[in-house]
TrEMBL record:
Record has DNA-binding as a keyword: yes
Protein name as it appears in the record: Sporulation transcriptional regulator SpoIIID
Classification via NCBIfam families: spore_III_D
Name of the coding gene: spoIIID
Organism, as annotated: Candidatus Onthocola gallistercoris
InterPro entries listed in its UniProt record: Spore_III_D, Tscrpt_reg_HTH_DeoR_CS
Record GO terms (molecular function): DNA binding; DNA-binding transcription factor activity
Keywords of this entry: DNA-binding, Transcription, Transcription regulation
Length: 85
């Protein structure tokens, strides 16, 4: 594997952990696709740094489980902005 890809996978994982970031936020930050973020931290990182991979997985799983809450809050805020008299 190319060295820069390994470095990116580690950087992405550290970013996710430090910022409690979602895949979407991370993809935007690094200017890459969500699928690349996902592949980096779930597949590539496992062979580079399994401990970091599992720590990242925990953050992503929590974020995924809370996704419906964030979506609901965004919808509520949008509704309040657009329908506030």
């Amino acid at each position: 594997m190319k060295e820069y890809i390994e470095e990116r996978a580690v950087e992405i994982a550290n970013y996710i952990i430090e910022h409690n970031a979602t895949v979407r936020q991370t993809a935007k930050q690094f200017g890459i696709s969500k699928s690349t973020v996902h592949k980096d931290v779930t597949e590539r990182l496992l062979s580079i740094n399994p401990t970091l991979a599992s720590q990242t997985r925990i953050v992503l799983d929590v974020n995924k489980s809370e996704r419906h809450i964030r979506g609901g809050m965004a919808t509520r805020e949008k509704y309040l902005r657009n329908h506030h008299g």
